[in-house]
Structures are given as C-alpha cells and as structure tokens.
Amino acid sequence: MVSRVIPVDPFDLVLFGATGDLAKRKILPGLFHRFEVGQMPPEARIIGSARTEMDAEAFRQSTKDAIEEFTPDSPNRAKTLAAFLERLDYVTVDVSSDQGWQDLAQVLRPDVVRAFYLSVGPSLFADIAGRLHECGLATPDSRIVVEKPFGRDLASARALNEGLRACFEEHQIYRIDHYLGKETVQNLMALRFANSLFEPLWNATHVDHVQITVAESIGIDGRGAYYDQSGAMRDMVQNHLVQLLCLTAMEPPSKFTPNAVRDEKVKVIEALDPVEPADIARGQYRADTGGDSYRDHVGNSSSSTESFIAMKVSVANWRWSGTPFYLRTGKRLRARESEIAVVFRDPPHTIFPNVGRLRGNVLVIRLQPDEGITLRTTIKDPGPGGLRLSEVSLDMSFADALGADVRQQDAYERLVMDVIRGDQTLFMRGDEVEAAWAWVDPIIRNWEETGDQPAAYDPGSSGPEEALMLMHRDGRRWRHIGG
Ligand code: NAP
Questions:
Q1: Does the Cβ of 17 fall within 6 Å of ligand 1?
Q2: Which of 23, 39, 106, 215 could form a disulfide with 333 if both were Cys (CB 3.0 to 4.6 A apart)?
Q3: 90 and 195 both lie in a single domain
C-alpha cells in the first residue's frame, strides 16, 4: 500500500538551533523525507539560524553531511538531496542580542505560512518569542514550535507559558512531545475509536491493569549535566509516559479536533490520584564489569537522581476505578523496548479439564523497536489426543499488514508537517503541561524533603527489586523486557 501524501501550503520555516544535534539528527532529515515524498511545495523554504557565522552555502553543505549520515541511502538520493538543498538559506542570529534579527526579517516572505522552530535550550524560548514579537516577525498566523523540556516544575512551566503567551496566542504555540508523533501512538487512537470491538471492553470491568514501559538500553551518554538535574521523572514520566497514559485512559473525544482530543487528555491528568511513596520504586544503575555507573556517567559521586522509576497510578474516575496503571521507564535496562500493554481480566470460569488457570488476553501496542499491535489469545493445541491449550499472539506488524515498502515516518517529520498544516492535535496544550507538572511536583518535593535515595540496579536488568515488588504485592507481574 502506498501512503497518500497531501502537499502542504508554501512556507518559511525558521530553524533556530540549526547547527545543533537535534536539528542535524532529526529535524533536517525529517524535512528531507517530506521533500522526497513530494509533500513540500516548490515555494517551501527552510531558513537555518544559530550564532555560528556561515553563509547559505556552508549551511547546505553541513545539512547535506547530516542527511547523508542520518538517513538511509536510496537510488535517487543524491539528485533529490541537491534539489532539497536549494530550499535552504541561513541567517546568523544571536538570539540573546540584537544581532541578526533585521537580516532575518529581510529573508522572510509575507504571503506564506511562517513557522519558527526553537531547537535551542529552553532558557532561550522566552527571549526568542519576545524578539520575534518586538521585531514584528511574528504575524497573527505564525507558528512557534518549542522543544522539551517544557519547564522543570509547575512554576517554571507557568513562567514559560506566560512568556510565550505574551507574544503568541495559544493556537500558535506547538509544544513538542515527539512520542505523540509516533505512528503506533496515533494508531492507539485509531484502534480505540475506529473499531467497535475494543471500546466496550476498555474499562475497569474488563481490564485488570495496564502496563506502560519505556525501557532504554543506553545510559546517559553525554547528557550527564542535564540529566542529573532532571532524572527519569522529569525527563520521561511528566511528558512521554503521562501522554501515553492519557491516550490509553481518555474518554472518546466527540470529534478528532485538537481541542476535543486535548480536553479529554487534560481530564485524565486531573483525575490522577496523588501517588503514595509506597507506590513508587526509584532506581539508579550501578557499574558492571567494564562499564561505568550512573554516578560515573554524570560525574556526581553522591547523586540521588533516578535513572529508573516504576510507579502504580490510579485514574480516579468511573471508567478506571480499581484498574491500576503501572508505569516504568529507565536507562541501561535489558533492551530498548517501549509498549503499552492492556491486560484483560482472566476468564471467570474454565470448562476445560486439567488446563489450570486461564490467563486473560493482553493487547500490546508496541512503540519500539518494531511498531505494531499484538493480541495474546488462548487457542487449542493442534492435533488429536485430548484438548490442550496454548497461548499465541495475533501479531500485526505494520510492515506486514500495509506492505513491506511502507517506511515508518519518524515522529519529527510528521509533527513538523502538522505545524505547517496548523494542526495542533499531536501537540501539548499549555494547561495540559501545567496539569502534568501539578501532579508530578509533590512527588519530587517529597523525595527532596525526605532525602529519598534510589535503589541500585544492575545494568542489563529490568530495574531494581523494588519495582518487581510493586507488582508482586498486587499479585501481578511486569511483562518481560527484551522479548
Ligand atoms: P545543541 O546541540 O546544544 O544545539 C543548540 C543549538 O542552539 C545550536 O545550534 C546553537 O548554535 C544554538 N544556540 C545556542 N545559543 C544560541 C544563541 N544565543 N543564539 C542563537 N543560537 C544559539 O542542543 P540540541 O541537542 O540540538 O537540543 C536543542 C533543543 O532540543 C533543546 O531544548 C533540547 O532539550 C531539545 N531536545 C533535544 C533532543 C536531542 O536528541 N538532541 C531530544 C529532545 C529534545 P550556535 O552555538 O551556533 O549558536
């Protein structure tokens, strides 16, 4: 099956931080892919910007190098890449000073969609928004895109929202959570709301519990200073895992519009019960043979920041009362694996002799590494000689179901085109981010006040013993990480 490509309107996309890591690894390659498939109109332009002095030609060369490094080769790539690079321009701007803004004003066109992508550190977000406003570069229809992290607590997120809203309307602000751009995450909404099979079962009567796992096999890798100030709770739970929880738990929106979807997500966050310390397991990876510990990686021998967290969360509403959501995420775990597993209740009675306890169905939405959906079912073992049962999975990998040539879009390329289209459905609204911080803040404050220390765990494991106990004491088990 060939996916349909709907071209977007002509645009000027200003990429602040164009010389940075994210721009090179994700944003520019993503834009190139959209160009390759024909979604970008001939009038589209990408204007890179940073403090580094260079001309447009040098920026084209560095973008060419990045795309060659970070995208797979294809027979026509050289030709397509040459055409893509013609769309690129570059303007040197130090966003903390007056330098460069007038040069930027000169290259922008009045009659096309205007988007400003802030791929820079969050301390620069409000400055850039202010300067865009003062210099008259932000038109009423301009869009501004901001990267994570969006604050480090409720107060800083509020201040950031105020800074952005002083210059832009909420409908112009696109707060990125790249998990929302993942194909499978959106498929979760399609699965729930485009099929009649699942929704009647999607509640506490039929669902025993939900497990959301985002496991990484890598450690901190060069981000030590940032990560040690942040930890798994701020870096992963407040944004990505809460978003996955929202999409799993939310009520059906009345329509698929940005505010209808985001209204339902906010209701889920507001329904989250405060989490008791006993329902949280924090961990920090220790050294293994030949490998450094978390503390070595961040260069802080007394760090009490968590590189792992597991927690039991209750959504206090009619649909989910009595059905816990278990969340877990961590670094240096056994495998890189992310999934949402909806574990249905066991059949209430078995008519089959000698088969033991029948286990409930499990619907698994896999986010990575191989995006797809699996439903664990129980069937009869083939052959004569009595009735024996086996568990098998109905496995729907996207590549098999939709044709082997379907390339999975990277989350960034989808999201950046949504910005140009003016579709905020997959972006976090200001009140949503604040609600998530309001839920997370007291948990972190409690750790700080009590001097809570994370438990050590072995690299390559599935986290500390305490996380296993979180499930065991409820008579449940985590799904295995790593196949
Ligand atoms: P980075 O590699 O440090 O790049 C920062 C960029 O900002 C560089 O292009 C730098 O260019 C520019 N910059 C810094 N100060 C500036 C100033 N005063 N005026 C103009 N430009 C300035 O950072 P990154 O990893 O790309 O991350 C960018 C943003 O994305 C951050 O908010 C980060 O949290 C977020 N993010 C990154 C990743 C990732 O995988 N990298 C993932 C998720 C979110 P010059 O030095 O030339 O000015």
A1: yes
A2: 215
A3: no
